[in-house]
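User: what does the whole thing look like in 3D?
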Amino acid sequence: MCGIMGYVGPRPASPIILQGLRRLEYRGYDSAGVAVANQGAIEVRKAAGKLDRLTALLEETSPEGQLGIGHTRWATHGAPTDFNAHPHSDPSESFAIVHNGIIENYFELREELLRSGASFSSETDTEVLVHLIAAEYDGDLAEAVRRAVARASGAYALVAMTAHEPDTLVAVRMISPMVIGFGDGETFVASGIPALLDHTRRVIVMEDGEMVTITPQGIRMEKLDGTPIEREQTEIDWDVEQAEKGGYPHFMLKEIFEQPRVVADSLLGRLSGTDVTLEDVGWDTGFEESLEKIWITACGTAFHAGLAGKEVFEGLLRIPTEAVYAHELRYRDPIVAPNSMTLAISQSGETADTLAGARLLQERGSRLVAITNVVGSALTHYSDDVVYTRAGLEISVASTKAYTAMLIAQYLLALKLGRSRGLLDDGAAREVATALEALPEQVESLLKREEGIDEMSRFLAGQLADKDDIYFIGRGLDYAVATEGSLKLKEISYLHSEAMPAGELKHGTLALVTEGTPVIVVNTQQHVYDKTVSALQEVKARGASVIAVAYDDDTEIEHYTDHVLRIPRTMDLLSPVLSIVPLQLLAYHVADARGLEIDQPRNLAKSVTVE
Ligand code: AGP
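Assistant: Here's the predicted 3D structure for the full assembly of 611 residues, as structure tokens:
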């Protein structure tokens, strides 16, 4: 989820590119750079850190030239350093590219290039592409790019340039977004509409598998197989703020709707049949064999993802797993037996409590595995292994897409451990892998249903918006999801909400349930389905108004509830990835109905870096 900006025309390229990158800073900002064609050469300036560092570099010496590309990075491969910042060049420095997304087979390509004598100056997957383009070049940049990307698999967008053709850019879109903007005698290309709005409102949005050759006079658009494409320009009437939110009224809603892509990206290149490859996990089989206990530590939403993880590791692998709030753990005196692993989960990788809790377990001999969304964050510095969640920059304080990505990371870890240690037989592993692969499509279909989950949750939000107390219940994995649903609701709607295991109600909280009290139940776990129904009957008997989250084909649930939020059927183990979506939407619409500041709720920070 990086930002890309390219320009070709009569004006100096650098300032235009920089301005475009500023508009895309909301997509990522751990490093930035520009490459400009200047008198038969390509000049590159790049720097780790926010755009201000690049701006300062350009103020010292700005490359001259009327064609260039720029990038603001949110790292997925390689730490945010000057070396890893884009644009990347080939060794002859005659070609440069910027790239957004993931090259799934970059490791094989890199090995092949290394064998043929190439050397690399970064740790990124991008650099293999520019090597391939240079190797394929025989006087036509578009053809070189076409041949190079034919060898790459993954989800990405890129823009390439060469000093040999100083009036041409070539852009490719393969799932990651890319848009072309048209000025008078000048053409722009960017990964997002906000970057273009200072210059033009006439755009063409590229589609998957398309390539565009861009010159000041206009463009040639074709499919990657060479089939020409004719497409009308469209006129954008969004302002910049609307464009940054992709047309959604809030970042939170945009991020909820990004989840199909996030789930797909989290799996990309990591799951092949039942084999799991996690690029920054380096333990050996001896460690897997000896592993006796898993600790999970985190705070807030990340902790709720960990609660689900505990159910997964214990249920699937039968490895004892303990999930502890990091702020509790850090002041305890935990008994850490040998042969344990700690999963420290943190979107930001900077949460002070999580860092302290994780360090404590590590100091006592536990292997530390970070699950985080931020490459190079503090947590990664002292972790033994890292699983990056690939959710892209999350702006809304209320975490949504990062949560689903944390779930996927844990499923992958469980499958990896289960396979290599022989805890999962072929059939069981295949069932999990197949169900995982179906998830992106299922999340997408859930969000896209006509008169579906978004409308239904908006309608129900209208009924909840003036309530004082809302209860969430579930059992096992459903309870884990209930905790997250409840947190989402309270942090942005400011309504009191509480989550509890369904069986706990009758031990006290049932006294608070009276006529009209809203109770939200998640009921997807078949082995405890009837037990949860019993709890529903208890609250119904006291007049509660019950909303359920249940599978599409569950016809029984309607008998005990007032409304049902339906999700596609999956294996029960994976249901949190789907069942959380209606609860995120419900929280969003309640806060919206109450007219609240959704993306920045009062008293809360996105990342809590102090105790
Ligand atoms: C959830 O919506 C909040 N943003 C909060 O609970 C958050 O999950 C928690 O502070 C942990 O943050 P981290 O994942 O960056 O460590």
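In plain terms: The pocket of 2-deoxy-2-amino glucitol-6-phosphate is lined by residues 299-302, 346-348, 351, 354, 397-399, 491, 607-608 (CB under 6 Å). The chain has 19 helices and 26 strands.
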